[in-house]
Design goal:
- The complex is a heterodimer.
- By secondary structure, chain A is of the alpha/beta class.
- Chain A has 5 domains: 216 residues, P-loop containing nucleotide triphosphate hydrolases (Rossmann fold); 211 residues, 3-Layer(aba) Sandwich (Rossmann fold); 59 residues; 58 residues, no CATH class; 232 residues, no CATH class.
- Chain A contains 25 helices and 35 strands.
- In chain A, α22 packs across α24.
- The longest helix of chain A has 22 residues.
- Chain A is globular and about 85 Å long.
- Chain B has one domain: Nucleotidyltransferase, domain 5 (2-Layer Sandwich).
- In chain B, β8, α5 and β9 form a beta-alpha-beta unit.
- In chain B, α3 crosses α10.
- Chain B is globular, with a radius of gyration of 22 Å.
- Classes of the chains: A alpha/beta, B alpha+beta.
- At the A-B interface, α18, α19, β21, β27 and β28 of A face α1, α5 and α8 of B.
């Protein structure tokens, strides 16, 4: 029994993947399939030595299901390249390293040392388990043990910080260096904090703690900052988009405080593979950074595959579920004695996959478990326990969300299965990095789901397996983010005339804050005069307008059961909405928009709800445009108004529409940046018989462009908004209840676009889904050729007939009888727009390295 | 051609901020600053540093506790707190009024109240700054009043007021004027003695319950930061005398609390 991934409207909120009704856990696997796996194995005699078992698995997969392997990449084994210990290295450290069996360095470790000792900020970009941490631990320990200077380590999460302290302490103990390394985070008890501040030589923390706990109290850390010599930032690639833009500003604040105490620390950064590590590091620091990218560490052979589940229904474009395939591959691997990790993209998927695998391998409760789930939401002790078991080899298979994606040390694994594309090439590659040993072959399999991006990658495995990972982009001068940190910085230390902070005019920003009565100018200084602690209201992980909490009021309870970010609250928490948690339905009874609270009651519902929302855009300023005879493409600043007008009730499985409800919520407005494409009216009339047909095409093309744009900008699809409408905010187009496109006026009334009375100049907008924009639109404008080219290719080569969620979005049954299919219409629109988008640009051309 | 852009030039920073943020309505009517020294009966120690001095005879009663009674209880209480070496004459009652209650480097103490028993009076010195530039002089003044050998007496001052002064001194690259002084925080003995019987141990509660003192028309402490902000922003100094009075009450109550705490100790509660 293989479950099908059903067709669902993409408008369902991203905060709750569990809303997808078909993804409820299925019954235990039938016996038949278990036999099938055993039979497949029986045909392949197990090699006696475990060294070649991964090869066996690779051969088995290739032999049994060649048609499912959409692409394959073999990375040959690499031998080690070594370098001598540098002459300046403390003899005690050399002893400690030798005691751990390290008699020389890898070339990249030495290269990093040389850069750092010449006083250059340095970024190290090498694969997982290549001895990256030594690149920073060596110079730091050497300096701290020698001259008692201080170092600050920043990791994106608390868990990673603890791992690092353990490793640092090990080396420290082996060399009797007397270096005190301590973590300082939200879990550090109050009485220990003072000791960390005054005695910690290496303080290990995270950006959020630096932002809210350390910088606003820097006077307590005076001794630390006075002698701060090194700042280490690991997992650099996670600092992109909003988080990265915040991080750049936190670093501006950190360096400002250091200057106050007369120090100017050197930065050592480490990153997983992204296209532009040097550029990202330089954007974060605002200074030149040396790049070390050539790993000298040995690596076993590695095979990466893109695996596409077999087609089950060609007309609808339906394939067997990714879950069924991931389970099968993991079972084969574990039966072959290979240590396996399966990554899923949601907590729910993790639990379901774990159940399927446990049904097979952990059927006997008396034996120790061979399969375990690992995801966020577990208690720290539980996580530590699993990490320990993984390292010690007590587990054969672990199913994880991205919680394990970061550099946690869990030992070497043989096989890594990705159940669905995790949203970025860099993310996928990092997960694949989990499998790989120095002496043996390892296998990584990306199992494509029915999502658009997955299917795109299945058709274009070279995009994924080729050596062109995405660019990480940040916009440190994003206005809202910058202003947030100008406030925090003003709180920490009065600004002085002539000082600068980022690329914008600081004086104008301070004048603005003075106008708001937040700061007060006195002589050449700008003092904080407000009773608030600004860092507490600035979340680094979001451009927060305030999250909503969902409160369960069933039977007089008052428990917070979920948190929903501001941007999706309007489409998920309207009164009457069915809100799903772990596939159980709650209904929203009351929404307190101002108080950011929704009150929910547990219900039994055989339907889910889907918000009907209209997004209108008005162009405020055009920064640049590409004008052609039939079409134009431009980017600039826009005003976005989003209105949730009502919702549909949709019955499970049959997907029939069983009712409507009204929603009365304030319009969501924001200013942001966007890129947009328009076709000239004459060209449009020549190309399409009817306006409805043209709108069909615009909506389908927008769907494809949206996903491709997310793929190219290393963003989640929700980071980018899309809309079809005219640029004056007069009307916007949506797919109507019957699957036909319709246009709505500003007040939500339906317009008859077939008539000539309404100006018909449809445009496709892709906008930064954050107030003020986050810097994605300008690069998308530059890449417009590639965006259109890839979207065209995606729609043109889709396996479906008239259109499906893997190309132009869900297509309802009745549209198949139309004059032309949505897919064909989308292709004609893309062909028109192609003209205003210069030929393929190489993204690498933009990278500064 | 379709949507015509409203403007062709990228907008300026100020315009962009104004667009993305709702601008706060500023009622920047400048208040006429009355002569602060006159309305507070104080005098300028230095430019923008005002001293308001009061001498309260020890026959003054805070609630039902006379100050001479409080003073004579001091040795017993000091002993109970393990501070035998502290001479009652060297006790300095200490309380600040600040621009914020959250703490952190962006909070300033703009009024610092200090008091000590001086023969037959409780001598109260309140220092008020009207500009940030005067802060350095304020810290110097604290240092000269709470000279070496003083013993600070505060309410929650170990957690809030003293670290705040230390932070400000560090920001001005100066020495902590309270550094090295002995410091008795009465919050802790009050908690030990009365926690079981009182709803909370705020100073206001302690005054009412242990001194039988209730303030009339007192400016609540929570409003002090806004008074400061309006003073800085618009020059509105009218509420400042009330803040000073509030601060004086705090200091006198601190002194008064010596008596009930000593009593509690004697009766074995502390």
């Amino acid at each position: 029994m293989e479950a099908f991934d059903g067709i669902h409207r993409a408008a369902q909120p991203l905060t709750r993947p569990s809303t997808q009704p078909a993804k409820t856990p299925a019954a235990p696997l039938p016996e038949k399939q278990i036999d099938l796996v055993d039979a497949e194995l029986a045909a392949y005699p197990l090699p006696g030595d475990t060294k070649h078992r991964a090869e066996t698995l690779i051969a088995l997969l290739a032999h049994r299901h060649p048609e499912r392997i959409a692409g394959e990449l073999v990375i040959p084994a690499r031998t080690a390249r070594h370098a001598e210990f540098p002459p300046g290295l403390d003899a005690r450290i050399v002893t400690a390293l030798r005691a751990r069996g390290i008699t020389q360095l890898y070339t990249h470790q030495r290269e990093a040392w040389d850069h750092v000792s010449s006083g250059r900020h340095t970024v190290v970009v090498t694969p997982t388990s290549s001895g990256k941490t030594l690149c920073y631990n060596l110079p730091v320990l050497n300096a701290v043990a020698g001259t008692r200077v201080k170092a600050l380590y920043l990791f994106p999460t608390k868990a990673l910080a603890q791992d690092q302290v353990a490793e640092l302490l090990e080396l420290n103990a082996a060399g009797a260096l007397g270096v005190r390394a301590c973590t300082f985070d939200g879990d550090t008890p109050g009485d220990a904090r003072r000791a960390v501040r005054t005695h910690g030589d290496v303080v290990v923390s995270n950006p959020d703690m630096l932002h809210t706990g350390i910088l606003p109290h820097h006077t307590k850390w005076a001794q630390f900052f006075e002698t701060l010599r090194y700042v280490v930032i690991d997992e650099l690639h996670t600092y992109r988009g909003v988080f990265g833009s915040h991080m750049a500003n936190v670093l501006r604040r950190l360096r400002r405080i250091c200057r106050f105490y007369g120090s100017d620390p050197l930065f050592i950064l480490c990153s997983a593979t992204i296209a532009n590590p040097g550029q990202l590091a330089e954007r974060l620091l605002g200074e030149p950074v040396a790049v070390v990218a050539d790993s000298g560490a040995p690596q076993g052979k590695k095979v990466l595959m893109v695996w596409n589940p077999p087609v089950r229904n060609a007309e609808l474009g339906l394939r067997a579920s990714a879950r069924s395939q991931s389970t099968r591959i993991a079972r084969l691997a574990v039966k072959l004695g290979l240590k396996t990790i399966v990554f899923a993209n949601s907590r729910l998927e993790v639990e379901v996959l774990t159940k399927y695998l446990k049904d097979v391998f952990d059927a006997d409760p008396r034996l120790p478990a061979r399969v375990a789930a690992y995801r966020g939401g577990y208690l720290p002790t539980e996580r530590r326990d699993k990490e320990r078991k993984l390292r010690a080899g007590g587990l054969d298979c672990v199913v994880s969300t991205s919680a394990l994606e970061l550099g946690m040390d869990i030992g070497a694994l043989d096989v890594c299965v990705l159940n669905g594309y995790p949203g970025s090439v860099a993310g996928a590659m990092q997960r694949f990095g989990r499998a790989g040993r120095r002496q043996r072959t390892a296998l990584g399999v990306l199992v494509a789901s029915s999502n658009l991006l997955d299917q795109y990658l299945a058709r274009h495995p070279e995009f994924f397996l080729g050596a062109s990972p995405e660019h990480a982009r940040i916009d440190p001068d994003q206005l809202l983010i910058l202003m947030d940190h100008v406030r925090c910085a003003a709180f920490e230390l009065p600004f002085r005339d002539g000082e600068s902070f980022g690329g914008e005019d600081l004086r104008a920003a301070l004048d603005y804050l003075a106008g708001e009565g937040v700061v007060h100018r006195e002589g050449a200084n700008w003092h904080w005069i407000t009773d608030s602690y600004p860092a507490n209201s600035v979340s680094l992980r979001a451009l927060a307008e305030g999250n909503f909490v969902a409160i369960d009021v069933t039977d007089g309870r008052r428990n917070v059961i979920a948190e929903v970010d501001y941007s999706s609250a309007a489409v998920t928490l309207y009164e009457g909405a069915i809100y799903m948690i772990q596939s159980a339905p709650w209904q929203v009874e009351k929404l307190d928009w101002v108080g950011r609270k929704a009150y929910l009651r547990r219900v039994h519902a055989d339907y889910y709800t889907d918000a009907i929302d209209y997004t209108r855009l008005k162009i405020l300023a055009e920064f640049d445009a590409d004008e052609q005879a039939r079409a134009r493409c431009a980017h600039g600043e826009v005003h976005v108004v989003r209105r949730v007008a009502g919702y549909k009730k949709i019955r499970y499985y049959t997907h029939e529409n069983i009712g409507y409800g009204n929603v009365n919520l304030p319009d969501q407005e924001m200013h942001t940046t966007a890129v947009w494409w328009e076709a000239r009216p004459e060209a449009l009339e020549r190309t399409f018989g009817t306006r409805h047909e043209a709108l069909d095409g615009f909506l389908g093309a927008a769907y494809a462009l949206h996903h491709i744009a997310a793929l190219l900008s290393l963003a989640e699809t929700r980071d980018i908004g899309r809309a079809v409408g005219d640029g004056n905010g007069e009307w916007s187009a949506v797919v109507g209840p019957g699957g036909r496109p319709n246009a709505r006026a500003a007040d939500g009334t339906e317009l008859d676009i077939a008539r000539g009375a309404v100006a018909f100049r449809p445009a496709i907008f892709l906008y930064d889904n954050y107030p003020g924009g986050i810097g994605m639109s300008a690069p998308l404008f530059d890449l417009r050729g590639e965006v259109i080219g890839r979207a065209t290719d995606l729609v043109a080569h889709c396996a479906c007939k008239d259109g499906c969620p893997a190309c132009v979005g869900p297509v309802l049954a009745d549209s198949r009888s139309r004059e032309s299919s949505p897919r064909a219409a989308a292709l004609r629109v893309l062909d028109l727009l192609q003209e205003a988008s210069t030929p393929l640009q190489q993204p690498d051309a933009r990278a500064v390295q | 051609m379709a949507p015509q852009p409203a403007a062709t030039l990228p907008p300026t920073l100020a315009e962009r901020i104004a667009r993305t943020r709702r601008r706060a309505l500023s009622d920047a009517r400048a208040h006429r600053t009355p002569d602060l020294a006159r309305i507070t009966s104080g005098r300028w120690l230095a430019p923008q540093l005002l001293l308001v001095e009061r001498r309260l005879p020890l026959c003054h009663a805070q609630g039902h506790v006379r100050l001479d009674l409080a003073r004579s209880s001091a040795p017993c209480l000091l002993e109970s707190l393990g501070a035998h070496t502290c001479d009652p004459e060297r006790m300095v009652f200490f309380d600040t009024e600040t621009s914020g209650l959250a703490g952190g480097t962006g909070t300033i103490a703009f009024i610092v109240g200090l008091a000590r028993f001086d023969r037959e009076v409780l001598r109260i010195r309140q220092l008020l700054i009207t500009t940030f530039a005067a802060e350095s002089a304020l810290l110097d003044e604290i240092r000269s009043f709470a000279s070496a050998g003083s013993c600070l007496v505060s309410y929650n001052g170990k957690s809030f007021d003293a670290p705040l002064i230390r932070t400000r001194a560090r920001l001005l690259r100066g020495q902590d004027p309270l550094g090295g002084l002995e410091h008795i925080d009465l919050l802790h003995p009050v908690r030990r003695a009365f926690r079981r019987d009182w709803p909370d141990c705020r100073l206001r509660t302690a005054e009412e319950r242990a001194l039988g003192f209730s303030r009339v028309d007192d400016l609540p402490g929570s409003q002090v930061p806004e008074v400061f902000r309006r003073f800085m922003r618009f020059g509105d100094s009218a509420p400042l005398p009330r803040v000073l009075e509030h601060n004086r009450h705090d200091l006198v109550s601190l002194a008064g609390l010596l008596y009930p705490l000593a009593e509690a100790h004697r009766s074995g509660d502390a």
